[in-house]
Amino acid sequence: MSSVVIPDSQAGTELGALKTALPSSAGSLFQLLRDGAPRTRADLATQTGLARSTVSARVEELLSSGLISYAGENTSTGGRPPTTFAFNPAARCVLAVDLGGTHARIAVTDLAATVLAEEEQELAISLGPAAVLDAVLQTGSRLLSQAGKTAQELIGIGVGLPGPVEFATGRPTSPPIMPGWDGYDVPGHLRGTFDVPILVDNDVNIMALGEHDMVYPEVSHMMFVKIATGIGSGIISDGRLQHGAQGAAGDLGHIASPDDEQTPCACGNLGCLEAVASGPAIAARLRASGLEVPSHATLIDLVRAGDLEAIRAVREAGRKVGAVLASCVNLLNPELIVIGGLVVTAGEHFLAGIRETVYSRSLPLATQHLRIVATRTSGRAGVLGASALVTSHTLSPESINALLAA
Fold it and tell me: Which residues make Cβ contacts (< 8 Å) with residue 218, sequence separation at least 6?
């Protein structure tokens, strides 16, 4: 199992959990087994320095919970072969929710973020929190049944929202494209049906977690940029997801585009990157030139069909995104930028525009080893990240000890 990036606002909690959970506790011992590698009691005693009797007692606790299971026997050097134990991701499940401006992807995963059941549907965030979250709960219940899981096996729910979120409370904060959501108690609404830990974050933050954990666990400095109905980014620095003081870090879409000071944006300002380079902005530009572009899908089809006007518009939008990203590269010095969202599915034209501007406007030292690539999680980055967000919290030493005590 790959490593999971710890959100910056959780870092203190995670460190506190490690300090307050006794080194000899079952929760602490469980951390050694989370990588999925089978170990014997002797292996665990050697790694922890604990007495064999203590290790045996903790192993029995974890076995009884189902969080670990028998993994076979090691080769014997004489006498009875020692039994090995390993993490059992199937012991519990996670409900992972990725909400965009016009769509939702909802999945049930195991504790290693393997998708067990999944559904993508059209769901406008503008319908408001009650309608959207009720639809999520209805779909989530159906997917649990489809995956052969019960509500009692659910260990937590992770949710990504297309706007700024106060991570500590899970409440959206003045989200530009989410009317009626400001300050709404998202965890409280969901907990009315599923009484489990519920973690809510900005959708691009969880995409950054998902892409990192599943594809680039070795990268310590990266950005994930989503180009769809809106534009946003998730920032991982020194191996930690950065939220900023109020959860607004990475709000790339509302940085002023260097070449446009007139286009009105939904946030009330003029010339925001989202207003000139998002999917709707590209479609509006093409409609103004006489093309019929009623949806993102039509835009993508035009580009794939080789329509020169559409290709030029997409590439120019990529250049505008690149102009803003060039400043981010100089400021943050990431080693990797991953581009996701519906627009990037149109092909290399958008990426080419981004690369063209970033490499020409950024400092040579900052771009010396910089890679700019398309997402490799096929639209699943959000649900994979939501799952990772939940397990990083619920599988901590302190949480495991509380689960066993209950």
Answer: none
